[in-house]
Design goal:
The protein is mainly beta. It contains two helices and 38 strands. It has helices spanning 2-13, 293-298, and strands at 37-38, 66-67, 73-75, 77-83, 89-95, 107-112, 117-121, 135-137, 143-146, 151-154, 162-163, 172-178, 185-189, 193-197, 202-205, 217-219, 225-229, 235-239, 244-249, 264-265, 270-273, 282-285, 289-292, 306-312, 319-325, 332-336, 341-345, 350-355, 363-370, 375-381, 390-395, 400-403, 409-414, 417-422, 428-433, 438-444, 450-456, 462-468. A five-stranded mixed β-sheet has the order 1-23-22-21-20. Strands 2-35-34-33-32 form a five-stranded mixed β-sheet, with no helix packed on it. Strand 10 and strand 11 form a beta hairpin. It starts with a helix and ends with a strand.
């Protein structure tokens, strides 16, 4: 169970933007040497010695769910887009039954939470998936769309378009990644990469490089470099100042397409590879040095049976590493850089568990399975070390949780019902239901004020809802 669920989760997050910060005033550093120095991994297993004890389960009365009535959209298939940085607008596509395929075209819409209405944009039907998305949000609040015919920028739900087609020498096929303040973007065309700066709409080609165009990439916190995964693995470094790329490390991808996720930066000089087929999770320096994650942070070597995920605090520079293993008998592990310690996390009465992504910078949401095949959802603070987990929910069917990116809210979906909790006390804020449909929480707005839900009918058809959290 755990392996399949974890792989599904990795693919669901593989194309998210990296949590980095930019500093455009920094000077470029010397291009790193392409030679990698690998630290050999051993096969010593991680010890199974979890220490924390979870808090007792509290049984509370559950109120009758409210019906979901006013929808944003309904169609044979709906593809979610993304939120504007200010949390006001949400993009999505609707598809007919004939269009419902893996890389389906669809009709593009922007939903305005203040006006509570959607605005169509007919010139942008392709690129509906996260993998091939062709729109981005500019720092001034405009949306820039690489349409089927033209490139245009405009304020959402307005008719005042600025045509930028001539600024881009080739049609853009994908928005790969960006720095958090949206001052720099990495894009792809049919033949290569492009660096784009919204200030002055500057577009610069990345010279003679086309590796990993469908793989993962992430800007360093200072915005000076982009770490990229190659087609079959291997790490490449793009120098933003010179728009040149060099290979700095060799490793093999476990599933092709450049791995299971974008590199995750721990500092301006080091980043993490989620896992590799030959060396497992890796820590890589700008100079190409490769270190085994387990040997470096967890006292025992990790292998391809492990995966590591990073969470960095830009303000302090501290980070946490979450280590997962496909072995059901091996607990989760969490490394705290601020104290240079790691801990094991175990939940009583469960035989396997893992962190459900995405969580946020304060909380871990853990989905676990009991011996009688019930699914449980637990929560615990990331800090301090050895914090006690607390159970939020349990159900005979699979639980689908989402945590707000900021604040202390989480939404939990099971079957035809959604519940919204506060963390960690599990105070129920709201409960919603749609008869004879399955409801999934798709996530919160960046400011945590809105929750996106999708209801799926067993006969076919999907319905999109966007609910205010603060009025629940």
């Amino acid at each position: 169970m755990k392996f399949q669920e974890t792989v599904w989760l990795w693919f669901s997050i593989v194309w998210l933007l990296a949590a980095c910060a930019s500093n455009e005033e920094q000077l470029a550093v010397t291009e790193p040497a392409p030679t990698a120095t690998a630290v050999p991994a051993t096969t010593t297993p991680l010890p199974n010695t979890p220490t924390p004890t979870a808090t007792p389960v509290r049984e509370t009365a559950v109120p009758t769910p409210s019906p979901l009535e006013q929808s944003v959209a309904a169609a044979a298939k709906i593809t979610e887009g993304d939120w504007s940085p200010d949390g006001r607008y949400f993009t999505y596509w609707t598809h007919t039954a004939e269009e419902a395929d893996v890389f389906m075209p669809g009709d593009f819409y922007i939903y305005d939470t203040e006006q509570e209405q959607s605005c169509p944009f007919a010139g942008y039907r392709t690129g509906a998936t996260t993998w091939k998305r062709r729109h981005l949000w500019l720092p001034n609040g405009e949306i820039l769309v690489f349409g089927d015919e033209d490139v245009v920028a405009f304020q959402p739900c307005s008719n005042d378009f600025a045509f930028l087609t001539d600024r881009f020498p080739e049609p853009i096929t994908r928005v790969v990644t960006a720095v958090p303040n949206h001052s720099h973007f990495l894009l792809t065309s049919e033949n290569g990469y492009w660096l784009y700066q919204p200030g002055g709409h500057q577009v610069q080609p990345v010279a003679e490089f086309s590796q990993g165009m469908d793989g993962g990439a992430a800007f360093s916190p200072d915005g000076r470099f982009v770490a990229l995964n190659g087609d079959e693995g291997g790490s490449y470094l793009l120098d933003v100042a010179t728009a040149t790329v060099s290979q700095i490390a060799e490793w093999t991808s476990p599933l092709g397409l450049g791995g299971l996720g974008a590199p995750e930066w721990l500092s301006n000089t080091q980043f993490v590879i989620v896992t590799s087929k030959d060396l497992g999770p890796l820590l890589i320096d700008l100079n190409g040095t490769i270190q085994n994650i387990g040997l470096t942070f967890f006292d025992r070597a990790t292998t391809s049976e492990n995966a590591v995920f990073a969470l960095r605090d830009d303000a302090s520079g501290h980070f946490h590493l979450r280590l997962e293993t496909f072995d059901e008998d091996t607990p989760l592990r969490l490394y705290h850089s601020e104290i240079d310690e790691h801990e094991a996390i175990a939940l009583p009465g469960t035989h396997e568990s893992y962190v459900f992504t995405p969580a946020n910078e304060h909380w871990l949401l853990l989905r676990a399975y009991t011996e009688d095949n019930r699914t449980e959802l637990w929560v615990r603070p990331i800090d301090p070390v050895n914090s006690l987990p607390q159970r939020l929910a349990a159900h005979e069917e699979t639980i689908y949780p989402r945590a707000a990116p900021i604040g202390d809210h989480a939404a939990v979906g099971y079957s035809n019902k959604i519940e919204v909790f506060t963390l960690p006390d599990a105070t129920l804020l709201a409960s919603y239901a749609v008869a004879e449909q399955t409801i999934y929480p798709l996530g919160f707005s960046p400011d945590g004020r809105f929750l996106v839900l999708e209801a799926v009918s067993p006969e076919g058809g999907e319905t999109l809802f966007i609910l205010p959290v603060n009025s629940s």
